[in-house]
Amino acid sequence: MKTLLLKLEPLIWFMFGQGIMIGTMLLTGWILVLGILMPLGIVDPMNLNYVRAQQLFTTSLLGIPIAQLLLAALLVLPLWKGAHHVRSLLIDFGGGERDGIVGTVLYLIAIVGSVMGIGAVAGI
Amino acid sequence: MAGPAHPEAMAPPTPGRTRTAPPQMPSTWWSSPRIRTYLLFDATGIIYFFVGFLAIKIVGQLGEGPIAWQAQMKALENPIYIVFHVISLISVIFVAVRFFRLFPKAQPPAIGPAKPPPGPVIHAGLYVVWLGLTALISLALAGVIL
Q1: A40 touches chain B (CB under 8 A)
Q2: CA–CA distance from A62 to each of A66, B140, B146 (Å)?
Q3: Residue in chain B nearest A74 by alpha carbon
Q4: d(CA B9, CA B12)
Q5: What is the pLDDT of residues A14-35, one digit of tens each?
Q6: How far is A47 from chain B (nearest CA, A)?
Q7: Which of A123, B70, B120, B130 is the most buried (most CB within 10 A)?
Q8: Which residue in chain B has the smallest CA separation from A43?
Q9: CB-based contact, A95 to chain B, within 8 Å
Q10: H or E element at residue B131
């Protein structure tokens, strides 16, 4: 397990890096509006009713489905930041003996979540 | 290529006359302010996990049709979700501020002939992109633009 994780380290770090950078940049506005301002009624939730949400999340630019790509990044990348940092946290508190299995489980959750996220975007 | 250094490589060949205790981590290691901030930075990973899976659920409901979407939007009005999102927003801002401060320091001095811009320029650039994207996404979701 540990050997496999070491071999996959460049890929894991790439996804983690994008998660912390792009994931953070995309999540801020999402959380602010969808998670706080709309539920509190500060922004009218009807501005993101079903029809408009469908239109917004399938917006294309020059034939590129830019909104779906951004949405996929928003759903997938934070999971990799989460997996890597939770792994790091567990090493700090629990030591490195079980890091092989713990890391593998966490990255598997991120992989499953990534597939679910891409599936959710494709299903719009 | 040389193998990894042995952890006892620098130990004397025979034990000294002075008895020494094995190294032990102090039980309060996590309470040092620097370590605490570092651990908090790592702990935001838990929030990112939850917020990522919640976002997947939200988008999944959009694919299920208008009734599921309206029900999902209504569910987000639950105070538990609102408190969770406030904690998430604080976490995301904390990660951004800390990571953007560290990012310029992690740049290589040069990539081939190209040298990265000075640290403050990279730092300011990251803030411009972050705040710009946040404004763009917020205005789009709120129905002000697009």
Answers
A1: yes
A2: 9, 19, 15
A3: B52
A4: 8
A5: 999 999 999 999 999 999 999 9
A6: 5
A7: B130
A8: B142
A9: no
A10: helix B119-141
Give chain A positions within 8 Å (CB) of B129.
25
Render pLDDT for B112-144 as a digit per residue (tens, 0 to 9): 888 989 999 999 999 999 999 999 999 999 999
Instruction: For chain A, count helices (H), then strands (E).
Output: 6, 0
Domains of chain B: 31-107+116-126 (1.20.1300.10)
Total number of domains constituting chain A = 1
CATH number of the domain bearing residue A60: 1.20.1300.10
Helix/strand/coil percentages in chain B, nearest 5: 65, 0, 35
Q: Domain of A24?
A: 2-122
pLDDT along chain A (124 residues), means of 10: 87 96 97 97 95 95 94 97 96 87 96 98 94
Distance between CA atoms of residues B45 and B99, nearest Å? 13
Chain centroid to Cα B9, Å, comes to 36
